């Protein structure tokens, strides 16, 4: 576990342009809960995590743009959209 933490921290410090989806869920929730809008690739993020981000976005009135959802089921996308109530926007 310590090796993972070290690698993750090193990646953030060294990477000049860090992608949002490479951040841990806790960081994304903190950004969104403070009112920051984000654009993330939802392809590799669990539906439950995207739902949690959508819920936080709705409560903070922050916009979340999610792309890379073409392989997700309609049920998953509707669940995320229903939770976000207009604060989640899906892109292709």
Features:
92 residues, 4 helices, globular, disordered N terminus
What does this structure look like?
The chain has helices spanning 2-14, 25-33, 47-60, 74-84; strands spanning 38-41, 64-67, 88-90. By secondary structure, the protein is mainly α. The protein has one domain (19-90). The chain has a three-stranded parallel β-sheet with strand order 1-2-3. The protein is globular and about 30 Å long.
Structural class by SSE content: mainly alpha
Low-confidence stretches: 1-17
Largest beta sheet: strand ordering: 1-2-3
Give the end-to-end Cα distance, rounded to a whole number of Å. Answer: 35 Å
Total count of domains: 1
Secondary structure tally: strands: 3
Give the radius of gyration.
Answer: 14 Å
Order of helices and strands: HHEHEHE
Shape: globular
Q: What count of helical segments does DSSP give?
A: 4
- Can you give the helix content as a percent range? 40-55%
Proportion in β-strands: 5-15%
> What is the typical, i.e. mean, pLDDT?
82
Main sheet attributes: strand count, strand direction, barrel closure: 3 strands, parallel
